[in-house]
Amino acid sequence: MPELPHDSTSRGQGQRLRMSKELKRAIEDAYRVVIFTGAGISTESGIPDFRSPGGLWTKMAPIDFQDFLRSPEIRAEAWRRKFEIDKTIVSAEPNKGHMAIAKLIDEGKASHVITQNIDNLHQNSGIPAEKVIELHGNGTYAKCLDCGERHELSWVREIYDASGAAPDCRSCGGIVKSATISFGQAMPEEQMNRAHEATLGCDLFIAIGSSLQVYPAAGFPVLAKRNGAMLAILNREPTELDQIADLVIHDEIGPTLAPIAMLN
Prior knowledge:
This protein is α/β, with parallel strands linked by helices. The chain has two domains: 22-47 and 93-136 and 187-264, Rossmann fold (3-Layer(aba) Sandwich), CATH 3.40.50; 50-88 and 137-180, SIR2/SIRT2 'Small Domain' (2-Layer Sandwich). The strands form two sheets. It has a six-stranded parallel β-sheet, sandwiched between helices. Helix content is 41%, strand content 16%. The longest helix has 22 residues, at 8-29.
């Protein structure tokens, strides 16, 4: 009787379970965990990764911050693109990966989530806003670049639809922009400082769903490792920092994290 072929699906499930157990043990042994997330966790909620090959930014160059500032026409085009992109984002909901992280935060095992994402899904999963450090801002509202007043996107959309132009701040007349960090725009100093402090305070740093290629954000895993913390990386594809990590898992995020947080 010929030997039956090995079941690759079973092998894959077995490896996932083993690696999940290793990560779970590292989390249990840690005193303070900091979690760093990139676009990969949100793609499992149906949000596209704009940086990946074939993504939006490979088809349509992003608008530079200085161009946004100098031209009302470019600002109007930026808002047109924003509302078009939001069609694929507004219906997205937190997935098992987000919920597992939320549980680790709620149980006090993880202190903060440092994220490159702008989709607000960590907050929507139940994590208090003060525990989420948004390095690239938040795309669910807008802010005046002059006075800092918050403007809801529904208000911006109403003005844009009526006039075809980008609105000015209702308080000071300044430029209103999505509360995200654009190409050419300075990183948010307060958020960077908070991320730096959180990173130095952890003994386990888990990078999840990030290619770890975009700096200065990708410098935080390196900082954690140099400061003596254990570095774990969970990403579907290899990253540039795999070689310095203590634990590397190349797998889906939600299915890997769900058993760790014991989600149903």
